[in-house]
From TrEMBL:
<dbReference type="InterPro" id="IPR050151">
    <property type="entry name" value="Class-I_Pyr_Nuc-Dis_Oxidored"/>
</dbReference>
<dbReference type="InterPro" id="IPR003016">
    <property type="entry name" value="2-oxoA_DH_lipoyl-BS"/>
</dbReference>
<keyword id="KW-0520">NAD</keyword>
<dbReference type="Pfam" id="PF00364">
    <property type="entry name" value="Biotin_lipoyl"/>
</dbReference>
<dbReference type="InterPro" id="IPR011053">
    <property type="entry name" value="Single_hybrid_motif"/>
</dbReference>
<keyword id="KW-0560">Oxidoreductase</keyword>
<keyword id="KW-0676">Redox-active center</keyword>
<dbReference type="InterPro" id="IPR023753">
    <property type="entry name" value="FAD/NAD-binding_dom"/>
</dbReference>
<protein>
    <recommendedName>
        <fullName>Dihydrolipoyl dehydrogenase</fullName>
        <ecNumber>1.8.1.4</ecNumber>
    </recommendedName>
</protein>
<keyword id="KW-0285">Flavoprotein</keyword>
<feature type="compositionally biased region" description="Low complexity">
    <location>
        <begin position="97"/>
        <end position="127"/>
    </location>
</feature>
<dbReference type="GO" id="GO:0004148">
    <property type="term" value="F:dihydrolipoyl dehydrogenase (NADH) activity"/>
</dbReference>
<dbReference type="InterPro" id="IPR016156">
    <property type="entry name" value="FAD/NAD-linked_Rdtase_dimer_sf"/>
</dbReference>
<dbReference type="InterPro" id="IPR006258">
    <property type="entry name" value="Lipoamide_DH"/>
</dbReference>
<dbReference type="InterPro" id="IPR012999">
    <property type="entry name" value="Pyr_OxRdtase_I_AS"/>
</dbReference>
<dbReference type="InterPro" id="IPR004099">
    <property type="entry name" value="Pyr_nucl-diS_OxRdtase_dimer"/>
</dbReference>
<keyword id="KW-0274">FAD</keyword>
C-alpha cells in the first residue's frame, strides 16, 4: 500500500477559488518541509503553497490554470522517514500545516484597525551567538527608507548611538527616490495639464502643452534631491553615522557591509531591519526589456509611448496611468480582478472610474495577461478573459502587480530569524521579531506597504530599543490613490462592515452640493462616513474627489479619538472648503444637515 499522504491547500485567508499559476514540482521530486509546491495568484496576492513535510512527491493532482480553495488536494507525497510527524497529520488541510500567507501586493488594502500584527514565534535562543561586550553601536538600522531613517533619527534623539546602513548612495528608500515623492511630482504635472485643458473650454486658453520630458524629469529629480539631501543633513545633525553599501547578516549581532572602501563589520546591541520591498512580475514577464517597465522605470520618463498598457489596476498602476495619459499616451488598463482599487468601496471608486472610462482607450477587468512578447518596435500582449481581444500590441507595458519584501537579500539565514511563507519577517506590536534585540519594520513585515505605516513602526522600534514601553497601536492606517480624482479610504469599508456583520449607518455628502468643489470645476466627489450604529462613533470613511487624500486625515484623527457623528458634525469647518463635506456627511447621518434635503429616516 502506498504510504503517500494527501497534500492540501492550507488556510489561504479569504480566498475561495484561486488560480494556480505555477506548479513547481513533479512526480519523483524530493521536497523539504516549507519548500514551495505550487504558486497561486488571486486578484490581490501571489501565494506559495509549501510542502508540509520532508518527502517525495508521488503525484501532482492539479495543473496550471486550475482553481483551488482551502482543503483541496494538490499532490500525494510520501513523507521521508520520521518527517511526517504532526505536520503530516495536519497535511489534510489543517490550518497549521504551514499556511500560505498572501505575498505582497502594492499597498491596496488598508489594514483593519484591529488587525493584529503577525504573531511572533517564541523567542529564539541564539546560544552560539553571544552579544558583543562593546558593540559598535546601540542601534544599527538596515535600510534608509521612511521606516529606516525615522527609526534611526528617533533612536538618536533618545540618546542611542546609531548607525544607519543604506545600500544606495541616496537616502530615503523607495518612497523618496522611486515611489511616493517622484510619482506625486509627476501627478502634479499631470494635474496642471488637465486643469489647463479644462479651462480651454471655460474661458482661458493656454494652447496645446509642449512637453519637454528632460526638463520635467529634471524638475522631478530636483524635488527628490531636496528631500534626500535634507535627510543627509538631518542624519548629520543627530550624529547618526551613515554607511553606504549592502548589509549582510553574519549572525544575530553582526552585519558586514560591502562599502566603497572595502568590507566593514558592524556589531550592535539592537538592529532594526528596514530593508523594504521591490516590484514583482508574473512569471515570464521580462522586466529587463526596455519596453516592459516596472514603476521605477516608468518614473524615469524615458519617452511618452503612443499606446501604453498598464498591467494591474491597483494604486501604483493607476497613478502612473494618470501621469502618462496626461503626457499624451493612449492608456489601456488590464486587471485580473473584477474591479479597480479592490481595497476601497465600489461606490467610492465609481466616480473615478467614470472619468477614466472617458479618458482611457480600454479598461479590461477579469482579464489576465497570458503572454508579453517585447521586441524592438513594441510589445505583443496576449489576453485571456473579460472583454479583451486575444492579442494586441503596445509601445510600452507597465507591470504593476505587487511588491515583495527584500528579505532574501540580507543573508538572514545566518540569524535566528524565521520568515513567513510570503517572505516577510513576523514582528509583534513592539516591532520585535522572535529574537529580542532584532526589530523589523516597514514593507518587509507586510501589508499595508505604505510609507506612513513604516514611519510609525520605525519610531516604535527605536523607542522600544531605548527601553520605552511603546507599541504600534494605530486603530487605522489610511490609503490614498493620488489619481484624478483622488480616492481615499480609512478604517472599515461598507463592504467589510457587511461581511463582518457590523451594524453600521452611513452618512454621505455629494460634492455637487459643495460650493468650493464646484468652483474647482468638479462635481463628481463623494464623502462617505461610516458609523457604528449603537455608539454613533465613526469607524471608517471613503472619499473621492480632488484632494481626498488630504481630507481623509481628519477622519483618521476622528477614529483615533473615538469621535462620533455629533463631534464631527458640530466641529466648525471653514467655508468654503471641501472639508465641509466631512462635517456635512456626519450631519447627514445625525439628521441635522440643511444643505441637502434628506427625508427623515426612522432612527
Ligand atoms: C511608485 C510608488 C508610489 C508609491 N506611493 C506611495 C504613496 O503615495 N504613499 C505611501 O504611503 N506609499 C507609497 N508607496 C509605497 C512606499 O514607497 C513604501 O511603502 C515605503 O517606501 C516603505 O518604506 P520602508 O522604509 O519599509 O522601505 P523602503 O522605502 O523600500 O526602503 C528600504 C531601504 O532599504 C535599503 N536596503 C535594502 N536592502 C538593503 C541591504 N541589504 N543593505 C542596506 N540597505 C538595504 C533599500 O535600498 C532602501 O533604500 C509607493 C511605492 C511606489 C513603488
Amino acid at each position: 500500500m502506498s504510504q503517500a499522504k494527501e497534500v492540501r491547500v492550507p488556510d489561504i485567508g479569504d480566498f475561495d477559488a484561486v488560480e494556480i499559476i505555477e506548479v513547481l514540482v513533479g512526480p519523483g521530486d524530493t521536497v523539504e518541509a516549507e519548500s514551495s509546491l505550487i504558486t497561486l495568484e488571486s486578484d490581490k496576492a501571489t501565494m506559495e503553497v509549501p510542502a508540509p513535510f520532508d518527502g517525495q512527491i508521488e503525484s501532482v493532482t492539479v495543473s496550471v490554470g486550475d482553481k483551488v480553495a482551502e482543503g483541496d488536494v494538490i499532490a500525494m507525497a510520501v513523507p521521508a522517514d520520521g518527517a511526517a510527524g504532526a505536520e503530516a497529520d495536519d497535511a489534510g488541510g489543517g490550518a497549521d500545516s504551514g499556511a500560505a500567507a498572501p505575498a505582497e501586493t502594492a499597498s491596496e488594502t488598508p489594514a483593519a484597525a484591529s488587525e493584529p500584527a503577525p504573531a511572533a514565534a517564541p523567542a529564539a535562543t541564539a546560544a552560539n551567538q553571544a552579544a558583543p561586550d562593546s558593540p559598535d553601536c546601540d542601534v544599527l538600522v538596515v535600510g534608509a527608507g521612511p521606516g529606516g531613517y525615522s527609526a534611526a533619527f528617533r533612536a538618536a534623539d533618545l540618546g542611542l548611538n546609531t548607525i544607519m546602513v543604506e545600500r544606495y548612495p541616496s537616502l530615503g528608500g523607495v518612497c523618496l527616490n522611486v515611489g511616493c515623492i517622484p510619482s506625486k511630482a509627476l501627478l502634479h504635472a499631470a494635474k496642471v495639464i488637465d486643469d489647463a485643458a479644462f479651462f480651454a473650454d471655460n474661458g482661458i486658453e493656454f494652447g496645446e502643452p509642449k512637453i519637454d520630458l528632460k526638463k520635467l524629469e529634471s524638475w522631478k529629480s530636483s524635488v527628490v534631491g531636496k528631500l534626500t539631501g535634507g535627510l543627509v543633513g538631518l542624519a548629520k545633525q543627530r550624529n547618526v553615522e551613515t554607511v553606504h553599501g549592502p548589509a549582510q547578516f553574519v549572525d544575530d549581532y553582526h552585519v558586514k557591509v560591502d562599502t566603497a572602501d572595502g568590507e566593514r563589520s558592524i556589531s550592535y546591541r539592537n538592529v532594526i531591519i528596514a530593508a523594504g520591498s521591490r516590484p514583482i512580475a508574473p512569471p515570464g514577464f521580462d522586466l529587463d526589456h526596455p519596453r516592459v517597465m516596472d514603476s521605477t522605470d516608468a518614473l524615469k520618463l524615458e519617452e511618452v509611448p503612443k499606446r501604453m498598457l498598464v498591467v494591474g489596476g491597483g494604486i501604483i498602476g493607476l497613478e502612473m496611468a494618470s501621469v502618462y495619459h496626461a503626457l499624451g499616451s493612449e492608456i489601456t488598463v488590464v486587471e485580473l480582478a473584477d474591479r479597480l482599487m479592490a481595497g476601497a468601496d465600489p461606490d467610492i471608486v465609481k466616480p473615478f472610474r467614470k472619468i477614466i472610462d472617458k479618458r482611457y482607450a480600454n479598461i479590461f477587468l477579469n482579464t489576465k495577461v497570458t503572454a508579453l512578447r517585447p521586441d524592438d518596435d513594441g510589445v505583443s500582449v496576449e489576453f485571456e478573459g473579460g472583454k479583451a481581444p486575444a492579442e494586441d500590441r503596445f509601445d510600452r507595458v507597465l507591470v504593476s502587480v505587487g511588491r515583495r519584501p527584500n528579505t532574501d537579500r540580507l543573508n538572514l539565514e545566518a540569524t535566528s530569524l524565521e520568515l513567513m511563507d510570503n517572505g516577510c519577517i513576523p514582528a509583534d506590536d513592539q516591532m520585535r521579531t522572535r529574537v529580542d534585540h532584532i526589530f523589523a519594520i516597514g514593507d518587509l513585515i507586510g501589508q499595508p506597504m505604505l510609507a506612513h505605516k513604516a514611519v510609525h513602526e520605525g519610531k516604535v522600534a527605536a523607542e522600544v530599543a531605548a527601553g520605552e514601553k511603546s507599541a504600534f497601536d494605530a486603530r487605522v492606517i489610511p490609503s490614498v490613490a493620488y489619481t484624478d480624482p483622488e480616492v481615499a479610504w480609512v478604517g472599515v469599508t461598507q463592504e467589510q462592515a457587511k461581511a463582518e456583520g457590523m451594524d453600521v449607518e452611513v452618512g454621505s455628502f455629494p460634492w455637487a452640493a459643495n460650493g468650493r468643489s464646484l468652483s474647482l470645476g468638479r462635481d463628481e466627489g463623494i464623502t462617505k462616513l461610516i458609523f457604528e450604529r449603537d455608539t454613533e462613533r465613526v469607524v471608517g470613511a471613503g472619499i473621492v474627489g480632488p484632494n481626498a487624500g488630504d481630507l481623509i486625515a481628519e477622519v483618521g484623527l476622528a477614529i483615533e479619538m473615538g469621535a462620533d457623528m455629533h463631534d464631527i458634525g458640530l466641529t466648525i469647518h471653514p467655508h468654503p472648503t471641501i472639508s465641509e463635506t466631512v462635517g456635512m456627511a456626519a450631519e447627514a447621518a445625525a439628521g441635522t444637515l440643511t444643505d441637502l434635503y434628506i427625508p427623515k429616516k426612522k432612527r
